[in-house]
Design brief:
Layout lengths: L1 H21 L1 H30 L1
Amino acid sequence: MAQARKIALYMVVVFVLYTIITAPARAADLVQVGFEGVSSAAQGVGDFMSELVN
């Protein structure tokens, strides 16, 4: 099981590097979308906590 996990991790790393090298603009867009999602989630948690305190 550990061997399969290691192989899967290597495949993901190779795919990410391939995507960055072949289409850097698209990769940057995907990273931006990811950070916007994390930011929105954090803002939602912050709003929830603020309402919970009030």
